[in-house]
Amino acid sequence: MVDRHPLVIENVGAAITDHALVSAVVGSLGATTLLVLFVYMAFTLVLLPLAIVGLFAEFLTILYGQAVFGYLIGTRLPIESDGVATLAGIGTLLLALELFGFVPFLGGLAQPAIAVVGFGAVVNTYFGLQRFEPITIPGGA
């Protein structure tokens, strides 16, 4: 995907690096709200299949955000090809998260924090189709 649609990945990456706090807030509120919505939908037999599909879509969105984190790490590695660099970056991210998980308190916070920021950045950029620019107040400080 990086080779065919680099602008999509760069839009999400810019939202992660430039607006991490906004992405974290949107990601935490959005993921929590969707999770509660899908659990409520699962209580009815009619909406149970839709709840399963929704949970799967939310999981894929989180994976998309983590893939963009891998892309951002891969761009800093000395590898020529973007696709190979992204795969190496994803591997580096997963290894770092696994090793950081051994740190008693911080390791448990780092993994959900990366998932939340990535989810928020994906949602803020409409899955990378639009660059995220925060709202500014005209003439304000």
Report, as a whole number of angstroms, the end-to-end distance.
Answer: 40 Å
What structural class results from the helix and strand content?
A: mainly alpha
Task: Give the integer mean of the pLDDT values.
Answer: 92
Q: What's the order of the H and E elements?
A: HHHHH
Number of strands: 0
Q: Any low-confidence stretches, pLDDT <50, length ≥5?
A: none
Report the major sheet. Answer: none
Radius of gyration: 17 Å
Q: Name the overall outline.
A: globular
Overview of this protein structure:
The chain is an all-alpha fold and 141 residues long. The protein is built from 5 helices and no strands. It has helices at residues 6-18, 20-42, 48-74, 82-100, 106-124. The longest helix has 27 residues, at 48-74. It is globular, with a radius of gyration of 17 Å. The model has no long low-confidence stretch (mean pLDDT 92).
Sum this structure up briefly.
The chain has 141 residues and is mainly α. The chain contains 5 helices and no strands.
Write the layout of secondary structure elements.
Blueprint: H1 6-18, H2 20-42, H3 48-74, H4 82-100, H5 106-124
Descriptive keywords:
mainly alpha, 5 helices, single chain, about 140 residues
